[in-house]
Design brief:
The protein is of the alpha+beta class and about 725 residues long. It has 17 helices and 30 strands. Strand 14 and strand 15 form a beta hairpin. The structure holds dioxothiomolybdenum(VI) ion (MOS). The site of dioxothiomolybdenum(VI) ion has 11 residues, from loops. Dioxothiomolybdenum(VI) ion binds next to loops.
């Protein structure tokens, strides 16, 4: 189905099933331990062997020798694969770092060998016997030092400009010029990367944990020099992805190579301490923001420059993305600069671009509002735009940022905030309120599905879409139920299998809207096939209550399949419409914090997120997404930071004891409001992304609340006690 004009009325608009806060259909399996995760496919392979990965202990240099004798002779060892005997490995499209390194070493804990043995313990013990000698070369590990040497990446979107920023900023009556930093972050999802690889002849099947089945299948085939149709990838249940599992990683490649070498199925998980330096992370940024405004608070100039680092041939963090679209102002510039940093690969994590960009921009907006003597909510409303400010001929398909702020301010009791910081006390606690815009682009992706009606009236949906804990199973079932006029119990959903039609996958908050739009398209075809089969030639055919109806004729749906299943398959594809309008999602985050006046400990007391992001397909799963995002925002504001050993070049706190993320006790009552809206430009579902929006802007709202509580402005995340303690006002 080609989607090339705004959606008109369609069966989804009935909202009998779609839009209802239904429980997850996969919930019972997950809570009873019967949903099978990547490391648990014991029954899929008899005679299973275990792989254990050896990682480089230097960050940059060359392996001079590798002594495998002791490891090979160790009990239970079946095979050891290194770059020497792995055969020629191709490089997939998505990865910058080589997943099996040697002799050149690109980063610390880059995989250099996999040991396969009868048991996990034997593989691990033997891996410890691998002796490696290296020559080290100096590496670059410190972004603040490499910033000067950073270059414009070979991407035409690296820089943008409109009007004359330099002139407008120089002559602006009110100016702000500040620099903010965000540290390296790790995904820290609950389920580590794991794979089980099984060869049958020249055909490979891998059970794994991956967000993007088709990308990863293609990259795995390319890496191993195989035809894509000889590779099957299965990932029906995923314990969190956050961007870490968008691409092929070492566990999958090495399980496949290990299984081939050992002639046995091989199961392999990356241990938690290995994940942090072996896989990807969100790179640190340095961001300079300049805003010029009239005394009344109209922005006349806005500039955002961002620096980040990555391995050679890597990619920048696109932290300036939202600044191109969020606020009005005629004179603008954004630049993106990339330094070579020899730390592990930087890549997508939890709303890449906007997540780190808003951490800076939204503190800057708070600082500017204060300079102008404006309420930060009013300052943002004053600078709203309904068109892309860099390309004013391009309108937003739908933009309710102002409504998010008005609704949120009212509901949160924003009027209780004092403009002067440090005014509200609760015993030893200094209280403050903070606010920030939420913004995330709405990407739409091609997505396919197959639907089957059987003689019992059951509709089965098959697509390679993944559910990373987000609720894909449920919203896909809701879509099929709505389209076919049946209840949720009459729908079965099978996901995460590369033999199914290629879907949008889970990434960039495009999965929910795109994958359900694919199911919609397939169901339109199924409806046609059923209508034909039952001899309806009316255009007015409806599907409701398990019946197919037209005029005064009504036939049970199941009857269409009495002499065989009816199957339909289609893919939603987007025409020019997706480029004609600027599609984005909007929100406002409100936060109340308490800061201990003696210790500078920050406690988040209340959070409210207001989201305007198209039709909400399931308010319960969407709310869970948003409060999850808000929780990540608290992490980014107060805790999360990969500590870099700038001499040896690795992340030191490579486990969940040292890399801190919020726990339940850190998170107060969270409230989420979804504005009632539909966006017919985005898809027939009229929905948009919402998951990542929940995170965008949150950290800055926390930072602004801390400032409002204390008068201490921290521009370097995370906001930890040590950065504030000596700046706190003395208690009188
Ligand atoms: Mo998301 S960081 O695109 O999985």
């Amino acid at each position: 189905m080609l989607f090339d004009r705004p959606a008109t009325t369609n069966p989804i608009d009935q909202m009998k099933v779609v839009g209802k806060p239904l429980d997850r259909i996969d919930g019972p399996r997950k809570t009873t331990g019967t949903a099978t995760y990547a490391y648990e496919w014991h029954d899929e392979a008899l005679n299973l062997a275990y792989g254990y990965v050896v990682g480089s202990s230097i960050a940059k240099g060359r392996i001079t020798s590798m002594d495998l004798r002791a490891a090979k002779a160790a009990p239970g060892v079946l095979a050891i694969v290194t770059a020497e005997n792995a055969g020629k490995l191709g490089k997939g499209e998505m990865n910058t770092a080589t997943l099996l390194g040697g002799p050149e070493i690109e980063h610390y804990h880059q995989a250099i060998a996999v040991v396969v043995a009868e048991t996990f313990e034997q593989a691990r013990a033997a891996a410890n016997l691998v002796k490696v000698a290296y020559t080290e070369t100096p590496g670059a590990f410190d972004l603040s030092k490499e910033r000067a040497a950073a270059v414009k990446p070979e991407d035409s979107e690296a820089d943008t400009q409109a009007g004359n920023f330099t002139k407008a900023f120089a002559s602006a009556p009110v100016q702000l010029d500040e620099t903010y930093t965000t540290p390296d972050h790790s995904h820290a999802m609950m389920e580590p990367h794991a794979s089980l690889a099984v060869w049958e002849g020249d055909e490979l099947t891998v059970w794994t944990s991956n967000q993007m089945i088709a990308w990863t299948r293609g990259d795995l085939a390319k890496t191993l020099g195989m035809e894509k149709d000889k590779v099957n990838l299965m990932s029906p249940f995923i314990g969190g992805g956050f961007g870490a599992k968008l691409f092929l990683r070492a566990d999958t490649v090495l399980a496949a190579l290990g299984a081939k070498a050992a002639g046995r199925p091989v199961k392999l998980a990356l241990s938690r301490p290995f994940v942090f330096n072996n896989t990807t992370h969100r790179p640190a940024t340095i961001q300079r923001i300049r805003i010029g405004a009239t005394p009344e608070g109209k922005i006349t100039a806005i500039g955002h420059e961002s620096w980040s680092g990555d391995l050679p041939d890597g990619k920048p963090d696109m932290a300036v993305q939202q600044t191109r679209l969020l606020y009005a102002g005629e004179n603008r510039m954004t630049t993106t600069r990339l330094a070579v940093i020899d730390l592990p690969e930087g890549n997508a994590m939890r709303a890449p671009g906007e997540a780190s960009g808003l951490m800076a921009l939204e503190i800057a907006m708070d600082e500017m509002a204060e300079k102008l003597g404006l309420d930060p909510v009013e300052f943002r409303i004053l600078n709203d735009t309904q068109v892309d400010p860099e390309n004013p001929e391009k309108k937003f398909s739908h933009r309710q940022l102002v409504e998010c702020f008005r609704t949120g301010a009212e509901r949160f009791g924003w009027n209780k905030r004092t403009a002067k910081p440090g005014q509200i006390r609760d015993g030893q606690w200094m209280l403050g309120y903070g606010v920030a815009s939420a913004f995330r682009n709405n990407m739409v992706m091609k997505s396919g599905a197959r639907v089957r009606l059987d003689r019992d009236g059951l509709v089965t949906v098959e697509t390679d879409m993944t559910d990373i804990g987000t609720g894909s199973y449920t919203i896909i079932a809701q879509t099929a139920a709505e389209m076919m006029g049946i209840g949720m119990t009459q729908v079965a959903v099978n996901l995460g299998d590369s033999r199914f039609p290629v879907s949008a996958g889970s990434g960039g908050q495009w999965g929910g809207n795109s994958s359900t739009a694919g199911v919609y398209a397939a169901c339109v075809k199924l409806r046609e096939a059923i209508g034909q089969k039952l001899g309806f030639n009316s255009e007015e055919i409806t599907f409701a209550d398990g019946q197919v109806k037209a005029g005064n004729r009504s036939v049970p749906l199941a009857q269409a399949a009495t002499d065989g299943d009816i199957v339909a398959e289609d893919t939603i594809d987007y025409g020019e419409i997706s480029k004609k309008f600027q599609q984005s999602t909007f929100g406002a985050h409100f936060v109340e914090v308490g800061v201990d006046s003696a210790t500078a400990e920050v406690r988040v007391r209340r959070m409210l997120g207001v989201c305007a992001s198209g039709r909400i397909l399931n308010p319960k799963t969407a709310r869970s997404q948003v409060i999850g995002g808000m929780t990540m925002g608290v992490g980014a504001a107060l805790m999360e930071e990969l500590a870099v050993d700038k001499t040896r070049g690795f992340f030191v706190n490579h486990d969940l004891a040292g890399y801190e993320v919020p726990v339940h006790a850190d998170i107060p009552h969270q409230e989420v409001i979804f504005l009632d809206e539909t966006d017919p430009v985005s898809s027939p579902m009229k929905a948009k992304g919402v998951g990542e929006l929940g995170l965008c802007g949150v950290a800055a709202a926390v930072a602004n609340a801390v400032y409002n509580a204390t008068g201490v402005r921290i521009r370097d995340y995370p906001i930890t006690l040590d950065k504030m303690l000596d700046k706190l006002p003395q208690i009188s």
